[in-house]
Amino acid sequence: MLTEYPCLAILRLPFVLFLSALCVMTGLVPVLLPALSCPAHAAQSTSVSGPHGTATLLSDSDSFMPGQDMHFGLRLQLAPGWHTYWLNPGDAGEAVTLAVHASGGAVGEGGPIEWPVPQRLRDGPLMSYAYTGDVVLPVRLQPQEAKEGTDMVVEATADWLVCATVCVPEHAQFTMTLPRAPLYPSPQAPLFARAAAQRPVASPFAAAIAPDGTLSLSGEGLSPAMVRDAWFMPEQPGQIDHDAPQVLHVRDGLLQLGLKVTDGFHRDAALPGIVVIRDVSGREQALAVTAHPGGPSLMVGTAHGGRVVWLARLLALAFAGGMILNLMPCVFPVLAMKILSLERMAQGERRAALVGAALYAAGIVVAFVVLGALIVGLRMAGDSVGWGFQFQSVTFVMLMCWLLFAISLNLLGVFSFGTGIAALGGAGRLSGHMGDVLTGVLAVVVATPCTAPFMGAAIAGALSASPVAGIAIFVAMGLGLAAPYLLLAAVPGLVRRLPRPGAWMEIVRQALAFPMLATCVWLAWVATLQGGQVAVPLLAGGMVLVAFAAWLVRQAQDMVMAGRGGRDGMVLFCRGGALLAVALAVGGVTMVPPALAPQGGGSGAAHPADGVEAFSQARLDALRAQGRPVFIDMTAAWCISCLVNERVALSPQRVRDAFARQGVVYMKGDWTGRDAAISAFLHDHGRDGVPLYVYYPAHGDGVVLPQVLTPGLVLHTIGAQ
């Protein structure tokens, strides 16, 4: 098919017949005949037809002039039931590509496709952005003169995917030749005008995107009386869940859409796309927007049930994560304090049990809120911190090691804290109550190296939500951690099922010192990784001071018990307490020399194990460009969950053999110390702490794995099972 219309169109026919007769009568036929004849060049290529439709290359002009813009377009006339895809195909599909090249009398390269607004096609749980029927996809080209008086040859290559119940890739090459002459609209020009009318217009409204995925348009003309519906289609794939409901909220001057963001959502980057607004009459207007970071979130308590559901879901995840945190290895060191609380419950002091459990829960909740507020504050100040960030400080690790060592000595009976951590030798009610609160605080502090299932999403949501919603999420997490002990205190039947008090409690109390001491060994190892060899004498010297202070306190307590307390006992007690305070303060004023501190995230990153590459974003990008599968393991020496996963699920020989067979590159990012690249990677995947496991197949987007791994799960993910 050379052209869509006959060269002498019906509208031209009377005019041409009149001039022809005039020419015959006046003898001017040789002069005017070339002007009246059909162009020697077609404004469209030969069509490529198949069972799924017809493809043609069109031009909006019958000729070309150097330096003047013109359009070429791929026209797809798709068979009924078939569709092809937009720039962002959505959950499935592949975008159309069109490359146009001019040579001969003029040279030039076509620009990007000027995309018309696509349709939203839903297929089960998938959403696609596509075109059906007859569509023209134009590109702009400005030819530059190469040879005067020579025709321009235009060549184009197109690839597109057509889908119905099956998908078929299509490919075609086109050629057309145009003469040099003043531009004149071709018969196909109306098709280009229709395509231009179908493009989105520049938005008159300011657009912003909040960290939680709330897209906002603000400006005059937006009101509930005018907007009936709206939806957003991002230009970039992997940013949002395309099939998820987009909760709409409109008030005068503001339109907000609640988008469900994915792990690929970049909270610090602009989000371009199309917002389609349908007014009360049913007319649709498509606006091209570029939403910049920092917009407002949808307010909790508005008429939007979807936003309330979102917050309720995060609260449930936070509560569940807090409960599961009781079973994580990180919390084992505080089991001693918990069991001592259970001992008091078993003795029948119901009121004391209730008060103690409530204060313990209050300590947990306060610690969670303070820790969350501290993380948010540091992030607002530009610091890339996340869950467990305090363990990246060698000073904090040393302080924790000394504190847990002191608690171990207390459990072994070297000296007594009384009924609570703060009751140094006293048994008063105030000291016991303060001890319950501090036990809850300590439980949170030592729990931060672990991230239980569900906690990752909850923490990310808390840090991206409004301050009120974020605090509520951290409170829910704390209540989850305290829930088992609140339940025991509140239900008398459960308390009565506890074993009767006896000598076994003292044995258990002393036995629980050994998990504490094991934790001290682990913290000493972490401090050595962070601070180098200089940390060893500092840490050991502090432990000696702690032990000496504990011994002095015990001497003072023995003198008081023997009736010889008086001045001497109190002096020894005060000296012991002072030495204990000095020992615990050494870490606060001790700075590890920078030359001895490992760089780039600790020794794990600097000296990866055999078969394991140190994480690098540039290396990851290069491997993905080569089409190689990559398994990312973001870990830290202070993250017990990470170490357990590595030992149980990633170190077995059958897993390593499967990695080798599948050609999977194993990359490890060590977050033991500060590492901006790892922090950015965590941030890009919606996480604020480790562990994080991401598998990139040879071709495709990354898959985020759960925070608790099994060998079977890893093998299934990489396709080895």
Automatic annotation (TrEMBL):
Lipid bilayer topology: Multi-pass membrane protein
Pfam families: DsbD_N, DsbD_TM, Thioredoxin_7
CDD domains: DsbDgamma
Residue ranges annotated for the Cytochrome C biogenesis protein transmembrane domain, each copy included: 314-524
Subcellular location: Membrane
Range of residues in the leader sequence: 1-42
Superkingdom classification of source: Bacteria
One Gene Ontology term, aspect cellular component: membrane
Keywords: Cytochrome c-type biogenesis, Membrane, Signal, Transmembrane, Transmembrane helix
Domain Thiol:disulfide interchange protein DsbD N-terminal: 56-177
Record bears the keyword Transmembrane helix: yes
Protein name (record): Cytochrome C biogenesis protein transmembrane region
Source organism (scientific name): Novacetimonas hansenii ATCC 23769
